[in-house]
Design brief:
Elements lengths: L2 H23 L11 H36 L13 H35 L5 E8 L2 E6 L4 E4 L1 E5 L4 E7 L4 E4 L7 E3 L5 E5 L5 E7 L12 E6 L1 H12 L8 H11 L30 E2 L4 E2 L2 H9 L1 H4 L12 H12 L3
Parallel strand pairs: 1-5, 4-10
Antiparallel strand pairs: 1-2, 2-3, 5-8, 6-7, 6-9, 9-10, 11-12
Bound molecules: dinuclear copper ion.
Dinuclear copper ion binds next to loops.
Length: 337
């Protein structure tokens, strides 16, 4: 193979590897596809650090190449330090240059942190209390009287204050396209401002290992225009729908007569449990068990019948219902829009 062919082949291999690498990065969890001010700052910081690191890398490789090529022509004893530029070169390249680079990196980091801190000071039109559980997310809007799970609704273009804590072990709230990670620590409340600049659904996940189902602890951030957000708030504020259909009514009686009520809340009923998600509007959500399965009648039945087979380790116990009872129970839960 000629030299030229080898160069072409080498370039192709590098290009293919880079394509594969960058393809693996893009997607709903792509932190370099920012969609809000918080993520934009991280993106800016990342590219700035990358540019500085790339510059340093090229300078070092350049000097190394120069040294290697230059030495090749020489014979005899190694030249001593003085012949290679002296102590001045060592001080310049080994002390002064690193100080300049590290101070520059420190300053850009401070600028980003300062901007984030100013944003966290407010004002915030919407505030949400976030409670991380094993393994799901509870979102409470105290000023709006809304409690939901695994689906955070926010008005597009507005800063939303998240007050994050945990009821058990340490978790970490992360919406890669919108904001940095924020640890959810029991007994402590941490705050961060989340803002989405465009309508859409953004992936959120737990970014701190928290046990068996750490990977199944996702949530959606639904950013919607103000009017749609207000509409969502109004519908969530309603007392849970009362059954009008006999089958749904049977389902309601089944639910209220079972141990479900000790863990779940359904507004307007005697179900006031606070261990599992509030189900007053469970049918309005797109997933079940924190993004583990889609919220369809079939998957809901599977989840109620045997949660351990769907999400091993979950606190949700299984049930022993007849097929008819399951249809009634699912019909009731599906009516809670
Ligand atoms: Cu919660 Cu990992």
């Amino acid at each position: 193979m000629g030299r030229r062919a080898r160069v072409v082949e080498g370039s192709l291999v590098i290009a293919t590897a880079l394509t594969a690498l960058t393809a693996a990065c893009s997607g709903p969890g792509d932190t370099l596809a920012p969609a809000g001010p918080g993520a934009h700052r991280i993106d800016w910081l990342w590219w700035t650090m990358f540019a500085i690191a790339a510059f340093v890398f090229l300078v070092v490789i350049g000097l190394l190449s120069y040294g290697l090529l230059r030495r090749r022509g020489q014979t005899g004893d190694d030249p001593d330090l003085e012949d290679r530029g002296g102590i001045g070169t060592v001080l310049l390249g080994g002390v002064a240059f690193p100080i300049v680079v590290l101070v520059a990196l420190f300053v850009v980091t401070l600028v980003a942190l300062e901007a984030q801190a100013r944003e966290d000071e407010g004002p915030h039109p919407v505030a949400v209390d976030v409670i991380a559980h094993q393994w799901w997310w509870e979102f409470r809007y105290p000023n709006l009287g809304v409690t939901t799970a695994n689906e955070l609704h926010v008005p597009t273009g507005q800063p939303v204050l998240l007050r994050v804590t945990s009821d058990g072990v340490i978790h970490s709230l992360w919406v890669p396209r919108l904001q940095r990670k924020l640890d959810a620590v029991p007994g402590q409340t941490s705050v961060v401002t989340l803002q989405a600049d465009a309508d859409g659904t953004y992936l959120g996940e737990c970014a701190e290992y928290c046990g068996l189902q750490h990977a199944n602890m996702r949530f959606d951030v639904v950013a919607q225009p103000s009017n749609d957000f207000d509409g969502w708030v109004t519908s969530q504020q309603q007392v849970a729908a009362k059954p009008t259909d006999p089958m749904v009514e049977q389902g309601e009686q089944l639910f209220l007569g079972s141990s479900c009520v000790y863990c779940h809340t359904i507004s307007g009923t005697n179900a006031t449990g606070a261990i599992g998600p509030d189900l007053s509007h469970v049918a309005s959500r797109t997933t079940l068990a924190a993004g583990t399965i889609p919220n369809t009648a079939e998957d809901l039945a599977r989840w109620i019948a045997d949660p351990q087979s769907v999400k091993p380790g979950t606190q949700m116990p299984g049930t022993d219902l007849t097929p008819q009872e399951m249809r009634e129970l699912v019909a009731y839960l599906e009516s809670l829009a």
